[in-house]
């Protein structure tokens, strides 16, 4: 259910000020709620769906993402401030939002993330057997077959018998598929622009480089492929 969020500042008869924050799943008289909870005659200075206009005298610090903390009113974020210092949580939360935006863009083309991944793998590495493709993508073979079949029906991929071994089926990108992938890549690039809107061009280059390094560190080796040697 969609939740109504409210924030602002308040002060009591002595003039003591403090921040307040509330969430409700139904229309709510927030001023009445806080008066009742506090059992005091409170004056609500700012009750809006956005950040309050006035800054409390002792507002908690907020992290702007650069490591520096600045004083200001609490944001409407549903994220506990303490986890904003945990990089693993930030990557999870950002990845979740990015995946949703990318999925929405792909859905407009009747595709899912796996369709894009398979198309890109075949385009980048050339024709390959289904078994090899499934291993490289760490994907269940039966799931891969479904994705490939979808892309064959749309004329983006083709499956041919290997002339050197008729038992093997090789997946290749069709001319139509290559043209479609170029169009799709240009279309979904706007997703990056949306997600990275707060960053400058230079910051985006730096972020991309750092993310690729972390990705290489965390990416598992394909099935059947030995990892780095640990011998002395």
UniProtKB/TrEMBL annotation:
Residues 68-78 have a biased composition (Polar residues). Residues 87-216 form the HTH marR-type domain. Pfam families: HTH_27. One of its GO terms (biological process) is response to stress. Residues 45-78 are annotated as: Disordered. InterPro entries: HTH_MarR-typ, MarR/SlyA-like, WH-like_DNA-bd_sf, WH_DNA-bd_sf. GO terms for molecular function: DNA-binding transcription factor activity. This is HTH marR-type domain-containing protein.
